[in-house]
């Protein structure tokens, strides 16, 4: 089957121009809204500590604190594939003091697969994208497989043992596993966890066969030899895992997607506050130290301002709706 191509933008000349322009825009923008922030800012992370969203979120919070001149405090609100935390932010005051680390799961996929008490487009305001997060398939190191083809053959021969864990039902990783079922003719059973970290721990312990997660959250166990990485879902290999092939290289040519991580806030924030937040977030996304850390973690720096992110984010609904339909998933 053919899968829809992701709308993830390439990092080319436009991003380099944005990076250069940011140095001029940021000081002016921050000066225009000097009254904000006057107190600490909350940054909601919708997954438990230790996972990829939390790792990147804390890096972003530290940089935002420096650039805003005020503490940015991370609050973990896990559960329901990110919808518990997202619901809280959707009800927050639109004053710019409550932010959320939005990923494709919480911003797009989960609201299409769950009955939620908010409108995912109407109730949130994009601030800026920080990075793309390629996904990777890792397996129990004791399985008798060394590549994706061998795993597919093993799964077909061992249907009772063939399962995969993710950070929650309706997550991008869950959907990726379901798409593998469709593409390879498998019947892998999904096991949902409250975050990727506990799923990976069960994988290391041999309780499940495979896990789909961002490279950021898995690179530690992969490098330590605790799990085996079979393939990444991005269109190209990841710099931090150069030996791991893509799904396309492994025989599934149309299997391509990626997660992303961005800062959003409650819709309706004052224009001057949004300008300040956007400028600070772009400065974070273009920070050389952060870019180096993200690359080491397997993420790809991807600076994007509020207007561009708004158009990109809304376009993602069409891409993932097609993927959801292809996998046959229904609203719970």
In a few lines, what is going on in this structure?
This protein has 332 residues and is α/β, with parallel strands linked by helices.
Widest beta sheet: strand line-up: 2-1-3-10-4-11
Helix percentage: 40-55%
CATH architecture of the largest domain: 3-Layer(aba) Sandwich
Shape: globular
How much strand?
15-25%
CATH topology of the largest domain: D-Maltodextrin-Binding Protein, domain 2
Tell me the total number of β-strands. Answer: 11
Average per-residue pLDDT, rounded, comes to: 88
* Level-1 CATH class name of the largest domain: Alpha Beta
Largest sheet: 6 strands, mixed
What's the structural domain tally? Answer: 2
Radius of gyration: 19 Å
Tally the helices. Answer: 11
Give the topology string: H per helix, E per strand.
HEHEHEHEEHEHEHEHEEHHEH
Cα-to-Cα separation, first versus last residue = 25 Å
Overall structural class, as computed from helix and strand content, comes to alpha/beta
SSE map:
Layout: H1 13-32, E1 41-45, H2 52-68, E2 72-76, H3 83-90, E3 98-103, H4 104-113, E4 124-133, E5 135-140, H5 148-157, E6 163-166, H6 172-184, E7 189-192, H7 196-204, E8 210-214, H8 215-223, E9 227-232, E10 259-266, H9 271-285, H10 288-296, E11 300-304, H11 306-327
Helix pairs in contact: 1-9, 2-8, 2-9, 4-11, 6-11
